[in-house]
Amino acid sequence: MRSNFAYDTEALWQQDRDHIIHPWIDLGTAKTREPLIVAAAEGVHIYDSRGHRMIDAIGGMWCVNIGYGREEMAQAIAEQVRRMPYFSPFGLISTPPSIDFGTRLAQYTPGDLKHVFFTTGGSTAVDSALRFVQFYNNFHGRPKKKHIITREYAYHGSTYLSASVSGKPGDRGNLDFVTETIHHLPAPNTYRRPEGMSEAEFCDLKVADLENKIVELGPENVACFIAEPLMASGGVIVPPKGYQRRTWEVCRKYDVFYISDEVVTGFGRLGEIFASEPVFDIVPDIIISAKGLTSGYVPLGAFFVSDRLYDSLTGPAGAGKYFTNGFTYSAHPVACAAGIKNLEIIERERILEHVREIGPYFVRKLQTLLDLPVVGDVRGSHMMVCVECVLDKKTKAPMPADWDVAYRIIRHTMPRGLLVRPLAHYAVLSPPLTITKAQIDETVEILRAGIEAMTDELIREGLWKAPRD
Ligand SMILES: Cc1ncc(COP(=O)(O)O)c(C=O)c1O
Fold first, then answer.
1. Does the CB atom of residue 264 touch ligand 1 within 6 A?
2. What is the per-residue pLDDT across 319-350, written as a single tens digit (0 to 9) for each?
3. CA distance 155 to 424
4. Is 186 in contact with 177 (CB distance < 8 Å)?
5. pLDDT single digits (tens) 140-183
6. Minimal CA–CA distance to 332: which of 60, 85, 51?
7. Higher pLDDT residue, 1 or 292?
8. Quick one: three-class SS letters along 316-371?
9. Packing angle, helices 199-217 and 243-253, rounded to 10
């Protein structure tokens, strides 16, 4: 990979400030920022506009699962563009790549989730799945079943409805949300469970939260529960052991649909194409997918739904009825061609096996950072891990948001050759799944140096000092 780029970084910064509106930008800095401009990438590395190389421990954004610079992905995409770049997916029209990809995916979905509805990304997949549930209940004469149960700190997307079922407190300013039919349970954050409570007791409590809410609303009024198996953007919140299975059982008991949002946990990040059944022992009614579905090479999302649900809508009963939901770019042929190749690469290179082997090492290695005085928790599974910085390990009080701890960390790791995801007081890691043991060692070594440098900075500025024992 050549790193002598011809980019004028200062000019790009100015044009970016003048013309580009970024998602999730602090508007106070929008006209002064000097953004990281990622100009090229190969394997697990990215190159900034000045040619500086870094390990991308973000994986793009939890998504470049097969790594960067895959020539055969470029070829599969180009071939589809040449043959037929686009045609409408609406009504009685289909394309070979979407049929082929949907058929292949059905080999991996659990239970009878053999039908797929392709969208353009994760948010539109969540939105479409929620609208599908609404359609199903109205169709079957259950129009009161409208309420949706979700959790605080969930992230399900950025359309009106998917944002409404999300629950990160920091994302709630200056926007409106659907509130009448959406209910947020407290997050099942095992690290922050009440002092003295065992993990098993905490699990009982969190399962009871769901059951109590269903009973309070009346099961006849509750449509679904939507949950990420491990809560990604909320800070890799790991529920207590058995939580996913037991909440699924509660949903079964009350005839409430269970939607598993596997946008992050799917496509190998936990060592499986879909983690719901092999890792968490559940067969949801609906699974949401995006990101790793194409390893981020081209945008695509999907929801998978059980035959039991879908088939009940088709045939004579469905005559003259339409699920009027979809997008110009649903099942985009180029995205589906990329998805097919992505799946082929995952299979051929035994990437799932690699993750199952190296994932526990990644977590263990990152857990060595727990000896640092500010690292309160290192949690996650396989290629999805969060390092949480706290004021005091005993009280678990988080470092204040205005200290910008995560950004301070990356300001120290980037010159050393590592980018992690800065989120509040967390450093989040979700690298390409092809990362090697040596690259994991390098990642952890640089992250350690970054956290140490950040801590020194806080001490020098008089913001933090080590708590007394
Ligand atoms: C669990 C989960 N669901 C849904 C989404 C939304 O996906 P997208 O950004 O592709 O719309 C995300 C994005 O980060 C996510 O993490």
1. yes
2. 999 999 999 999 999 999 999 999 999 999 99
3. 15
4. no
5. 999 999 999 999 999 999 999 999 999 999 999 999 999 999 99
6. 85
7. 292
8. HHHCCCCCCCCCCCCCCHHHHHHHHHHHHHHHHCCHHHHHHHHHHHHHHHHHHHHH
9. 20
Q: Report the separation in Å between the CA atom of 123 and the middle of ligand 1, taken as the mean of its atom positions.
A: 6
Range 220-250 burial, b when 16+ CB lie within 10 A, else e: eebbbbbbbbbbbbbbbbbbbebbbebbbeb
Residue with the smallest CA separation from ligand 1 atom 7 is 122
CB of residue 232 inside a 6 A radius of ligand 1: yes
Tell me the sheet residues that pair with 209.
none
Give yes or no for residue 165 CB within 6 A of ligand 1.
Answer: no
Nearest CA to ligand 1 atom 3: 156
Q: What is the pLDDT of residue 34?
A: 94
Atom of ligand 1 nearest to the CA of 265: 1
> Which 3 state secondary structure label does DSSP give 440?
helix
Asked if residue 121 has its Cβ within 6 Å of ligand 1, the reply is yes
pTM of the model: 0.97
> Is ligand 1 within 6 A of the CB of residue 122?
yes
Termini Cα distance of the chain: 50
For residue 306, give the nearest of 104, 142, 111, 138 by alpha carbon.
Answer: 111
Taking only Cα atoms into account, the Rg of the chain, rounded to an integer number of angstroms, comes to 23
> CA dist 69 to 48, 65, 196, Å?
15, 12, 49
Q: Distance between CA 363 and CA 110 in Å, rounded?
A: 27
Rounded Cα–Cα distance for residues 256 and 268 (Å): 28
- Taking residues 309-317, report their average pLDDT: 97
For the stretch 384-417, pLDDT in tens is: 999 999 999 999 999 998 999 999 999 999 999 9
The number of the ligand 1 atom at minimal distance from the alpha carbon of 61 is: 14
